[in-house]
Design brief:
Elements lengths: L13 H13 L1 H5 L20 E9 L3 E9 L2 E7 L11 E10 L7 E3 L7 E14 L2 H7 L1 E8 L3 E8 L3 H5 L4 E6 L13 H4 L43 E5 L11 E5 L4 E7 L5 E5 L10 H8 L6 E9 L8 H9 L6 E11 L2 E2 L5 H13 L7 E3 L7 H10 L4 E6 L8 E9 L2 E11 L11 E9 L2 E10 L5 H13 L1 E2 L16 E4 L4 E6 L1 E2 L5 E2 L2 E6 L43 E3 L4 E2 H19 L4 E5 L9 E3 L10 E3 L12 E3 L2 H9 L2 E7 L11 E8 L5 H17 L5 E4 L5 E6 L6 H18 L4 E2 L11 E4 L8 E3 L15 E2 L18 H4 L17 H8 L7
Parallel strand pairs: 10-19, 15-17, 39-40
Antiparallel strand pairs: 1-2, 1-6, 2-3, 3-4, 4-9, 5-6, 6-7, 7-8, 8-9, 11-18, 12-13, 12-14, 14-15, 15-16, 18-19, 20-21, 20-24, 20-25, 21-22, 23-24, 25-28, 26-27, 29-30, 31-32, 31-35, 33-34, 35-41, 36-38, 36-40, 37-38, 37-42
The structure holds three DNA strands.
Length: 868
DNA sequence: GGTCTCG
DNA sequence: CGAGACCAACGCCCT
DNA sequence: AGGGCG
């Protein structure tokens, strides 16, 4: 650098002196911190940049490695300490703490600062070049916003320094700033290229200000950064979640909230796989059993996952394939652990992520994806999850020899304690008994009081009927009468039991000949051979009474059918991470975000046919029902797995429209607080031609529900007279939706005009019932039929969508024959709609073959497109 | 809830 | 970083 | 005409 350049940075005369004094003052803090007898750092001086302002970045291995970012201004280097160094990714902002001004000469300093001195350690010139402020740099520096361009070896393009507002730092003269790369040609995502890692070395030997942009290394050669993510540290120990014993399944109304798994009669086992793949297995009390379970440890090592905690139960399978607790103990006693298999049912941590606050359904789905990713080692099993009614599952489980079920709330987090969110339901025993008598009814009861039960038993050479208790519940009034009739027909004076039960005469016992057979469910056999907690199930006609003996539990040799018609919950690939699952989104019902997600997870199979192939619009409610909501039809910035971004040409002038083709997309959107999903009336492949019409029957203030029902029927009749085939669904809100499939052909204006003509006709014919115009004013006492949902870009709530209203109604397809039974447009809500999933879309089964060309209907109605 | 923009 | 805006579109109504 | 509303 030519000494002659010095003059160019300053002006002549007395101004020069003033400027030099200002520089001197500015460098005062710098000098006061250093002892220049001990450090080689320059005390002052240095050259201004040639033809522009200089910048330098020094990599400083002090107590902590950091980068010193310096910009020449007014004769000194304005300096910031950037702990992580500059980053080319505009998304990544780097903290930059402003420090004391340095002399210009410092920009060339490279070397060691001796121990004991300020900033002791090694310094290299990591980058240098020119900087070009955008606008006035001095005022930018003062106001806390500095935009500029860098022309260095490593750093180029546009950057911003922004001062933060934190108070504390300001006062100690060390304001915190952010160093941010602006979006331009030099910007690069961090995960593709990590500049500080790729370019660690000094540039001092290179020319200060390269004329051309230095070639960047190819991204392939950049070492992959091992980036720390927001992942939680994996705990070293984990207590298992335990189930609470329950007598009964949850009430039918809450069934949808529960998933069921078989109860394995073995030992609980928690597996920890660390980041290096080391596997350790712990019992529920935290004992490390890895050494005793070597075959299992080896099997677990084959799972394609690290940094996780898995939860499950180890069992030894008995002869029937059901777990056998005795065999498990024997296996340990004899050191024969290769017969032990591991049923996995939960993943509190997976791939370094803490999933404990995720809904169970999602944890299980992720475990399932993991275990389906590779051929499963034979010792590992995935515990299947069922959503069938627990009664039938319990029966099936019993036949398979399982001791019961574990019920788990679909939306519950994983808690390391005994929790009401997990219940264990032991199956009740169930078998046939011979009826040997009955007792008198008490009080208001008619027919009889209880049936006296017996089984045949061998006593020496004699075969006797052994009394084993009574059953007095489980009958309805009709059964009481019918059975009483049957009993009377077999009445006898002789007691068939041997020995005769004591104390029965006091209860008015009647004996009957031992020919009738009752099926009875009961909790268990008492030691005396009596049934406990017996419930009558029905009379059995198919089994002769003489064959009835006490059955050993769980050894039914008949091949058990697969658990009755249970639908396994389908896997959701790319299931999103759900945050704040416990947050209440509807104060009215107390429903949580987790329940919303769980609903869409369950309903996905029924809902996807309605979503597939159509642009979708979202109603999102980040603050829940009653909070601020917004509609969303487009999205560019965010790409979510399972949410497709359509060709932007479909809706010119906008970001891409969205479409959901996969369950994961539905869940992703639920995670974004999407409560309602609305669909277009056209499919994406021919967006200009709607394939259906929608009529939204929206009752005004004070309209009786019967009128809405009647109105829907009137609309139906009218549409059918026009040769169309309408379908019905609840809106999930106040009213009903009538959906009419049409042949594609007419454009949007024609479809909308036709729909308007239909509604106008309806309103003309029955003006006291219907209005065509919206607005609450003229709508009181009448039904507004909204035809506006038939224009380009208009949408209507999709079938199975939840509605963002108090109570969270669900829009459900129904048959016209069901209309009279509906109680409101919100007949089904989030909590009871799951029960309706079994009916699913069958009321609309004919829709696909019911589309009609609009031409005929337009003629009948006398509607001409274009003529309003 | 996520992203962008602004300071 | 921290706060705030944005995230539809149509026909109402009101001014 | 323009803005807020649902």
């Amino acid at each position: 650098m030519a000494r002659a350049a010095k003059g160019s940075a300053t002006t002549a005369g007395s101004a020069k002196t003033a400027a030099e004094q200002a520089v001197k003052a500015a460098l005062d803090p710098y000098r006061r911190k250093r002892d220049f007898a001990k450090t080689r750092e320059p005390a002052q001086g240095g050259d201004a940049g040639v033809g522009g302002l200089r910048f330098v970045v020094q990599k400083h291995h002090a107590r902590r490695l950091h980068y010193d970012f310096r910009l020449e201004l007014d004769g000194t280097l304005k300096s910031w300490a950037v702990p992580k160094g500059p980053c080319l990714d505009p998304k990544v902002k780097r903290m930059a703490v402003q420090v004391e001004d340095h002399p210009l000469a410092y920009g060339d300093f490279e070397g060691d600062i001796p121990p004991g001195q300020y900033g002791a350690g090694h310094v290299i010139v990591w980058d240098k070049g020119q900087w070009l402020p955008e606008g006035d740099a001095r005022s930018g520096l003062r106001s806390g916003k500095l935009k500029f361009e860098l022309r260095g070896h490593k750093l180029q393009g546009r950057w911003t320094l922004v001062r933060m507002h934190g108070k504390a730092r300001q006062e100690e003269r060390q304001p915190a700033w952010l160093l941010i790369k602006e979006q331009d040609a030099q910007a690069r995502p961090l995960d593709e290229y990590d500049l500080t890692e790729a370019e660690p070395d000094s540039v001092r030997s290179l020319p200060a200000a390269p004329g051309a942009v230095a070639p960047e290394p190819a991204p392939e050669t950049a070492p992959k950064p091992a980036r720390a993510s927001r992942r939680a540290a994996l705990p070293d120990t984990l207590q298992p979640q335990l189930a609470t014993p329950a007598d009964h399944p949850p009430a039918a109304a809450q069934r949808a909230d529960w998933l069921w798994e078989l109860k394995y009669d073995g030992y609980r086992l928690l597996t920890h796989i660390d980041a290096a793949g080391r596997v350790r297995c712990f019992t529920r009390n935290g004992h490390d059993w890895s050494a005793r379970l070597q075959p299992l440890v080896r099997a677990l090592q084959q799972l394609p996952v690290r940094a996780c905690w898995l939860d499950g139960e180890i069992v030894v399978e008995g002869e029937q394939g059901a777990p056998d607790f005795q065999a498990l103990q024997n296996a340990f006693d004899q050191g024969r652990t290769e017969a032990i298999v591991y049923w996995l049912f939960d993943a509190p941590f997976l791939a370094g992520e803490d999933l404990r606050d995720q809904p169970l359904a999602l944890r299980h789905a992720q475990l399932q994806s993991l275990m389906q990713a590779v051929p499963l080692p034979p010792l590992l099993r995935l515990s299947e999850v069922f959503d069938a009614p627990p009664e039938s599952l319990l029966a099936a489980a019993a036949k398979l020899g399982f001791e019961g079920l574990i019920g788990k709330r679909v939306d519950a987090p994983y808690q390391s304690q005994r929790s009401p969110h997990w219940i264990k339901l032991k199956h009740r025993l169930r078998q046939e008994f011979v009826i040997g008598g009955y007792t008198e009814p008490q009080g208001a009861r008619s027919g009889f009081g209880a049936l006296m039960l017996g089984v045949h038993a061998q006593e020496g050479s004699r075969r006797v009927l052994r009394w084993c208790g009574n059953v007095g519940t489980g009958f309805d009034a009709r059964q009481l009468g019918v059975i009483h009739q049957r009993l009377r027909a077999h009445e006898s004076s002789r007691c068939p039991f041997d020995p005769p039960p004591a104390g029965m005469h006091a209860r008015g016992a009647h004996w009957v000949r031992p020919v009738l057979v009752a099926e009875v469910a009961f909790g268990q056999w008492t030691r005396e051979g009596r049934v406990r907690h017996a419930v009558f199930q029905g009379l059995r006609e198919d089994k002769p009474a003489r064959e009835i003996v006490r059955e050993a539990p769980g050894v039914e040799p008949a091949a058990a059918p697969a658990p009755a018609q249970a639908r396994a919950v389908p896997t959701v690939r790319h299931a999103p991470r759900i945050t704040h699952a416990e947050r209440v989104i509807d104060r009215h019902s107390g429903a949580t975000k987790g329940e919303l997600v769980a609903w869409y997870a369950q309903a996905a199979a029924q809902m996807l046919p309605h979503l597939k192939g159509r642009p979708v619009a979202l109603l999102r409610a980040p603050a829940g029902v009653g909070g601020e909501v917004f509609f969303q039809k487009h999205a560019k910035e965010q790409q979510l797995p399972g949410v497709r971004q359509l060709d932007p040409a479909l809706d010119p002038g906008h970001a891409p429209l969205l479409q959901i083709d996969q369950a994961a997309g539905l869940l992703q959107l639920a995670q974004l607080n999407t409560i309602e999903l609305h669909t277009w009336n056209a499919r994406s492949d021919r967006i200009a031609q709607p394939d259906r019409l929608c009529f939204d029957l929206d009752p005004g203030e004070g309209v009786a529900w019967e009128c809405v029902q009647e109105g829907a029927l009137l609309l139906r009749t009218m549409l059918e007279e026009l040769g169309l085939v309408p379908f019905l669904k609840t809106s999930g809100g106040k009213g009903l939706h009538v959906v009419v499939p049409i042949r594609r052909g007419p454009d949007w204006d024609t479809a909308k005009g036709f729909a308007q003509a239909v509604v106008a006709h309806l309103a003309r014919t029955l003006p006291d019932r219907f209005v065509q115009k919206s607005g609450p004013r003229n709508r009181v006492g009448r039904i507004f039929v909204d035809y506006l949902r038939n224009g380009f870009g208009a949408t209507t709530a999709c079938a199975w969508s939840v509605r963002a209203r108090p109570g969270l109604g669900v829009s459900v397809p129904v048959g016209w024959d069901e209309l009279p039974q509906l109680r409101s447009g919100a007949h089904w809500g989030l909590r009871d709609a799951p029960a309706r999933l079994a009916v699913g879309n069958t009321p609309w089964a004919a829709m696909a073959r019911s589309s009609r060309a609009l031409g005929g209907a337009m003629r009948v109605l006398g509607y001409t497109p274009g003529a309003d």
